[in-house]
Design brief:
binds zinc ion; about 210 residues; alpha/beta; eight-stranded parallel sheet; about 20% strand; binds D-xylitol-5-phosphate; TIM Barrel
Length: about 210
């Protein structure tokens, strides 16, 4: 595994040329492809669903990192796993606390990795008891829903708490407002997986942009 995993968010790609854009970031050195799934309920936006994941599975061998920003994520774990997701992350705020461990294990039962995401208002202490059940924790540094928002630096402070508390092999992902400067802040605090949408897809030179995040 690379030291810092770069996961470009296709939310900022050109959806009319999605296959082309995924091949472009793969060629430029991306490690994963981040897929933002929104339902218009958990977040005030709608994006893409299972058929799109099934299609993009055919154009890349990179791991598909599926970030579910939806209510009732359980319903969609199997469809996304069968469509080719390699990592499925759901939101702590979208489920009952007593369902969290079962859902982590349910994701893993498909032979893939499980992630738990937290919104900016959620305190790290709330999820410490669950992190052993997950391969990855996702710290949101913007309110989920839209690309291109400003990085909330106080959210990044949560990373050091998870790095300290989690196992050595815990993947610590950060998502929202990541660019060359904020990436450095996050990796210093212990992040080893960076999601970036607008910074990568709006740049003139995609491989330089990806390199600048490492
Ligand atoms: C926001 C999504 C992000 C988003 C990041 O709800 O989870 O993955 O695409 O976009 P940027 O990198 O532009 O902040
Ligand atoms: Zn995301």
């Amino acid at each position: 595994m690379p030291k810092v995993i770069i996961s470009p968010s296709i939310l900022s790609s050109d959806f009319a040329n999605l296959g082309r854009d995924i091949r472009m970031v793969e060629k430029a050195g991306a490690d994963w492809i981040h897929v933002d799934v929104m339902d218009g309920h958990f977040v005030p936006n709608i994006t893409i669903g299972v058929p799109v994941v099934k299609s993009i599975r055919k154009v890349t061998n990179l791991p598909l990192d599926v970030h579910l920003m939806i209510e009732n994520p359980e319903k969609f774990i199997k469809p996304f796993a069968e469509a080719g997701a390699n990592i499925i992350t759901f939101h702590y705020e979208a489920v009952e606390r007593n369902e969290i461990i079962r859902l982590a294990n349910y994701i893993k039962s498909f032979g893939i990795q499980s992630g738990l995401a937290i919104k900016p208002a959620t305190k790290p202490e709330e999820i410490l008891e669950y992190i052993g059940a997950f391969d990855m924790i996702l710290v949101m540094t913007v309110e989920p829903g839209f690309g291109g928002q400003k990085f909330i630096s106080k959210c990044a402070q949560k990373l050091s708490c998870f790095r300290e508390y989690g196992d050595e092999d815990l993947i610590l992902q950060v998502d929202g407002g990541i660019n060359d400067e904020t990436a450095r802040v996050c990796t210093k605090l212990g992040a080893n997986s960076l999601v970036a949408g607008s910074y990568i897809f709006n740049s003139e030179n995609i491989s330089e942009a990806i390199d600048s995040l490492r």
